[in-house]
Amino acid sequence: MAIPNLQVALDQSSLSEALKTVRKVGEEVDIIEAGTILCLAEGMQAVKCLRALYPDKIVVADTKCADAGGTVAGNASDAGADWMTVICSATIPTMKKAAEQVSELQVELYGNWTYEDAEKWLEAGISQAVYHQSRDALLAGETWGEKDLTRVKKLVEMGFRVSVTGGLEKETLQLFAGVDVFTFIAGRSITESADPKAAAREMKEEMRRIFGDAK
Ligand code: 5RP
User: Pfam families recorded for this chain (predicted)?
Assistant: First the structure.
């Protein structure tokens, strides 16, 4: 079992704020995400800037695309995104069209989805899923727990590389000990920390501690 990647999610509403933050953490993380909030506020210009600043990092456009997959993914790819997200309720044709345009497509899991849907994503050639606790659900009192572990494990067993995200703190990571998580995606716990670089380093250190000895 490998040590998971660390992905920083930039969810600022302004590009200048996102760039100020990423310059503190970009070199510390494995993957850089133009978050949904940033994509909606600033468009693919955000992805272009991240690509220009970090030519050797994986850049993700977290568009959570629901339709017009080929066009949206084409725009993301032209801007320099390696990977892009689609929402799990998008149709298979939308996902397939999007997947043609980027190196990898990730299905974002929100709300109601089934393992039968997940089989169809695999059949369509999509093998990355993002298991998400919604920001609003967490604010409404939802927490990470056994039910999430069960679903993440099942998706891993099915053959997905599973990223995990939603209000993750360094302290949340222990819950996933022994689970083959592909990537932890952290936004605010890094970007809103007093010292984002230290926060990213501590998270990586905790990942090494938890997953370093895992077989
Ligand atoms: C929200 C997102 C966020 O980018 C993701 O959840 C990480 O942010 P945070 O750690 O701040 O919750 O996709 O839709």
Answer: OMPdecase
